Amino acid sequence: MTDCPHPTPLSKVDITCSFWTGRLEAVRVGALPFIYDQLKRTGRWDCLKLQWKPGDPNKPHRFWDSDMAKWLEAACHSLRVQPDPFLASLVEEAVDMIRGAQQEDGYINSYYTVVEPGRCWTNIAWSHEMYCAGHLLEAALAHHSYTQSTHLLTPVLRYVSHIGSVFGPDEGQNPGYPGHQCLELALLRAYEETDGNEMLLDLATFFIEERGQVHPHGDHYYDIEAKRRNEDPFVGPMRKGGRRFEYFQADLPVREVAIQEDGIQGHSVRAMYWLTAVAHLARLSKDESLHIAAKRLWTSVMERKMYITGGLGAIGEWEGFGPDYYLPNESGYLETCASIGLVFFAHQMLLLEPLESKYAQVLERALYNGVLVGMGLDGRSWFYDNPLAVVEEGLKRSEWFEVACCPPNVARLLTSLEKYIYTFSPDGDTLYVNMYLSSSATITLSCGSVLRITQKSKGPWFGGTSLLIEGAPGEVGKLKVVLRKPEGVRRFDIAIDDTPVMQEQSEYTQVLTCSSFCDVSASRVTVSVQFEYQPRTIHPHPLDLANFRHISLARGPFIYCAESIDNPHIPDLRAIRVDEGSPWEEVVDKESFKRWGVEYVKLRTTVWLECGEEDRRKVELTLIPILLWANRGLSTMRVWLPLA
Amino acid sequence: MTDCPHPTPLSKVDITCSFWTGRLEAVRVGALPFIYDQLKRTGRWDCLKLQWKPGDPNKPHRFWDSDMAKWLEAACHSLRVQPDPFLASLVEEAVDMIRGAQQEDGYINSYYTVVEPGRCWTNIAWSHEMYCAGHLLEAALAHHSYTQSTHLLTPVLRYVSHIGSVFGPDEGQNPGYPGHQCLELALLRAYEETDGNEMLLDLATFFIEERGQVHPHGDHYYDIEAKRRNEDPFVGPMRKGGRRFEYFQADLPVREVAIQEDGIQGHSVRAMYWLTAVAHLARLSKDESLHIAAKRLWTSVMERKMYITGGLGAIGEWEGFGPDYYLPNESGYLETCASIGLVFFAHQMLLLEPLESKYAQVLERALYNGVLVGMGLDGRSWFYDNPLAVVEEGLKRSEWFEVACCPPNVARLLTSLEKYIYTFSPDGDTLYVNMYLSSSATITLSCGSVLRITQKSKGPWFGGTSLLIEGAPGEVGKLKVVLRKPEGVRRFDIAIDDTPVMQEQSEYTQVLTCSSFCDVSASRVTVSVQFEYQPRTIHPHPLDLANFRHISLARGPFIYCAESIDNPHIPDLRAIRVDEGSPWEEVVDKESFKRWGVEYVKLRTTVWLECGEEDRRKVELTLIPILLWANRGLSTMRVWLPLA
User: Locate the Non-reducing end beta-L-arabinofuranosidase-like GH127 catalytic domain: which residues (chains A, B) (predicted)?
Assistant: First the structure.
């Protein structure tokens, strides 16, 4: 097992990449105020005032607190970078409401306080109490990081203590764990960010180790609590022949789930949050068997259950996984939140194994495709599920959802993008460059030296970057830099202060290490790398019959699709047939998405049209990155293209 | 428009084909007593005693009466052919209960009498009252045909009169129509079978013509009745961008639905029952525009929405149609009842256009595949939905369903199989032979002559038949015979009393007419036809990307599939690759399904195995007709096979 890198020697990150500043502006100016309006309109905001009474409209729901908490987290992330008085006043109001909603024993949950008082902790399989608590804790951490005040963190940690008193392994405690994983992940993050409150680590460890256990003297916990309620437990929607509670990944303890032949099962967002926490705990605890379980389940996800966009969940019925290699396009679920969870999971795996660039690759795939496709370019319209093909015009982005997890989840992920650009070795002295995008950041080395890193990149549309590293004279040489070689690039030429560097290149990790590259007294050095993205073809797995004899196109981190709006001369996108070796022309398009400030690279080739009735003929086909589709009116779309 | 053939100059049919006697025995010995037990166990039987009170178990449901009525219809069909004292006593009990459940005004519906008294006819969009009434009427017709008594028919016709007084075009009547089509179809059948009670025809005509109308002075009827209830109407689950009420095919009047570019939409069983009635009314009324509408919608179904098994319904969410050519295998719905409805619809179209053998072909496809696959060989286990591929072992036939439409529906269709063997010209003097299966029947010609027809066929597994036609001297020559050429047969050699007949053969209709074939004084003649079934390959439509570069195998009316149980050496059926021109060996298998008395023809070839990791290698692949799958334990299955 590798030593654990510390995740955050980073500060004062400023993202200057124009692609990303556009997306972050859509969150700040679009999503954050827009989601606030929706929270307000639907009662999700005011429910924390605990004034709802039976008969009133906008009856609180069990997971409403989480919608607000995610928005609060995103707002705090955004405010840390960019002041906004109105947003700041809303954050204050939210914090006051949460503080005001806290009960004497520390409990905070609007639904169980006003709608089902006295029934708290009676149905943790479905109550979402711990899920909401997890998001509260994440919001409190973001608030602390933004304000440096513990005005929210203190009461939320008191709530966590209350949970830790109710649940645990001891006599008089309930051996239960979250029905929707989330709190585990937040506890571990809090443990790291608040410098080691052992209660947080212990509770997370308990939840992770207890999950799926059946006690010799008793039942599964979800059976125990259901029996107390005189009910049968609802085991969740499930595949035919599936295991009880697999919807929650609570059918078996994690190490046993990991060795099941059919791999990861059940609800995909739950699964991703869970595995994020499992990998995180493996790193903190240096528990090899947990690390192995996380790796196995990673493989199950990535090799057998993942769509090429980093989307997860073939089956809408349980918002989750289907059989291995069963990846239907039109009916696929691919919940936006599941891709967000995959970003978290990939990030934790990368922290465990920083030289395994596959984790960074999947992180980018999910972020640039599975996550970004979920938010309209305006930041005010959303997809909950993201099928890879749409046959009929009619699918429209929604302004809001009854189950509104995705919009604020996208917002909080994008506003914390800085986390994913770099990772660090345990001593903090090796910088792994995962994402190539223009930005500047301050890093603190183990010896206390402070360096400023300025990345000037042509990314994400074009390859290559230069990293200017600056510090006090003699400090710069203390840093080691590892550059990730992105998938599918041809050259990868490194230079230090314009002098080419001979490089050792590993095919397996696709990374290149360069270190000890400058003289001892230097106060600045520039590491540059040249590489080029080109269109590349992706083939499906032989057992993926939904895409049999199809290909898809990618360029850099982007997965491409054909949208009917760019191809008005093609009556039905299903009629196209692509020649395997067809050359793809790259065209910078500054016009199509100008309204949203997006310039990008589209791909063009000629394809056959085969409609059955008419003769075959050649036509031009244009592809755009999938994140851009469904912004210009009703259309149809396909990612996978049938071969001629 | 063709003249309308009379549907039933047929009597005393005795089916002797061993395949079918086996299936009918499974219904008589298996399904009928088994379904009765389920009706009894779940309260569906006794609810007609109207004794349920709030708090009692087995609370009646709105469509329970239909489950019992379908069982009753099937029991009566079966008793007509084969006496069974126990079954007969149950039928008597059922009839007495229905009679006893009738209210003073004629109304019969257990749910609205005991669970929601006073709310009858307030929500015909969803109440299933007319649906239950339709099945009651069908049961009453079957009971009348079996007993010649009007003990059930009279009260049910009184109920229909009550419905006709509540609903209709006149002042004081409600301009409503069934939320689940069924009554229309039963009314028209009753009209024909009870010799022309005009009220029945008028009410059916009203329902069909009124459906989907929006009145200048008002709303859609489902809006009107919802407004009266102070509710919003539930328009049903629906495709994105779909039309309101299209779930019920009540979005537009039938002739307008027929010219929509996207063809038939919504719930597929509703659609089939509706189109059956539309085609039936077109025949009875000789309304050309209605005939054209039925034809257009037939084309929409058959060419663009139908699975090769005669299964319908790509989308489970609304148990109905998806976009044109969108026919996913694993997630397909293909409700057994929808294929039953397709048999009805095809039959009515065939009666309208008896020389169009495409209707008889689809009828056979649906019957031998889409319907028969829905019942286990034991007659005691069922599939509600019938996907064309199953990737994981786990799918098991059910003993019963909460929504239990399919089991008794299969039973009533199979027990009325005789209807589909022959159709007749309007004057009754031309016999169209649609199905080749051993049987005998009596037919009555327009002049009153009575003939006996004995068919000795090697069907359905082998081609060829001989028809022995017997009658008083000189009568036999009055009959004209039209033999349908089944799809995909190579030869079609007709002989009369062993003398080959020169034949005119139409590619379009695939029928062959032979008439005036014997001398005036003959009292018997044998018409024989030789043809051979061979394995044939079916290719998908170019826009059907779910089956891109796949083929499927058929032989005679049977669609074949690979079931894992016959192919234990193939680790995953998705790994096979079939050579396009691969020869298929036909093997008579008397062993595999011996337990259920089934002998059949299996198909065998060698295919490539392509698992991704190991080398390609050749293995043997065995296919069985899809109706036989899922009878020998858990397995996986595929109909469409990827090409090498």
Answer: 13-418
